[in-house]
Amino acid sequence: MHFDLAACETLGIVGESGCGKSTLARALVGLQPATSGAVLLDGSDVTRLDAAGRRRIRRDIQLVFQDPLASLDPRMTVGQSIAKPLLNLCPELNALERWKRVLSMLKRVGLKPEHAQRYPHEFSGGQCQRIGIARALVVKPRVLVCDEPVSALDMSIRAQIIELLMELQREMGLAMIFIAHDLAVVRQISHKVIVMYLGKVMEQAPVDDLFDQPHHPYTKALISAVPVPDPHIERTRTRIILDGELPSPAEPPSGCLFRTRCHFAHDRCSRDVPNLRLIKLTRSGVACHYAEEIARAGDL
Question: Disulfide check for 269: which of 76, 189, 208, 259 has CB 3.0–4.6 Å away?
């Protein structure tokens, strides 16, 4: 897997549960050791830093968690939770400066200064996620990793949080990695997308290219599951139903990891691991031996 991410750019990561999305997020921010590869920030490999180096780099890479309430300490007030990263990562600030930044960040995410004295259980799920975002951004990071930040929220609240993240990205120049199951949300917020399966990238492309012309059979199946607002189109279109369950990561299939559920699998797929390669005349990287043949054959 290889990807580059610039300021004010969002990379969406999608795939079924168990495909490695959250593991990747935790490895990027240093909460889980990387078994191989490198994570470069300004040329420095985050995975090979000592404890002091990781502490310095943590100011630049922050994480928003999936469960907004569980990610907050119930014994700490909201103000204390947001101030904690400043205590750990911004020792140059005095108490008054820390508190001013906490109140400013609360206001920026749509909450009130008096909320700083309350506890997490006094807030709704959407408000708790706003608190989590404030805590992640209070140290002014350059990279924000969002691990399914809206999956536990109602649809209307979900839209508000997405809009908030996009506004904050523009204001702060954030590079953002956004992990989600909801492909409609990924299409709205992302500039480019990675599709993962059993810890490997199946397809990587700019967002419009991937949704308008998916090349990998797995990507096609995921996109076909997204509801279409037009009732006539929704009733008449063909859905792609994947056979079986996601294989165990401990005992992955030989060759192509997706072959046990793929309608186009051939003998070669069981022998050879397909590399991620650029499809001619496109900007899409696809890990499939027969991507061009599938494209010529039309939709599955």
Answer: 259
Residues 223-278: tens digit of each pLDDT:
888 777 777 766 777 778 787 788 888 899 999 999 999 988 899 999 999 999 99
**CATH no. of 10-190:** 3.40.50.300
Q: What single-letter DSSP state applies at residue 48?
A: G
Task: Express each pLDDT in 180-198 by its tens digit.
Answer: 988 889 999 999 999 999 9
Task: Tokens for 294, please give them.
Answer: 């599938």
- DSSP label at residue 73: -
DSSP string, 217-286: HHHHHHHHTS--S-HHHHHHSPP-PPPS-PPPTTSPPSSSTTGGG-TT--HHHHH-PPPPEEPTTSS-EE
Q: What is the pLDDT of residue 263?
A: 86
User: CB neighbours of 246 closer than 8 A, spacing ≥ 6?
Assistant: 16, 17, 18, 19, 197, 198
CA distance 300 to 241: 10
pTM score, two decimals? Answer: 0.89
User: Quick one: DSSP state of residue 86?
Assistant: H
Q: Where are the domains of the chain?
A: 10-190, 207-297
DSSP-assigned beta bridge partners for residue 62: 144
CA 100, CA 144: separation in Å to the nearest integer?
A: 22
Beta strand ranges found along the chain (DSSP E): 10-14, 40-41, 44-45, 61-64, 143-147, 175-179, 192-197, 200-206, 277-278, 285-286
Angle, to 10 degrees, between the axis of helix 95-108 and the axis of helix 78-89? 120
Report the relative pairing of strands 10-14 and 192-197 from DSSP bridges. parallel
Tokens standing for residue 65? 């968690």
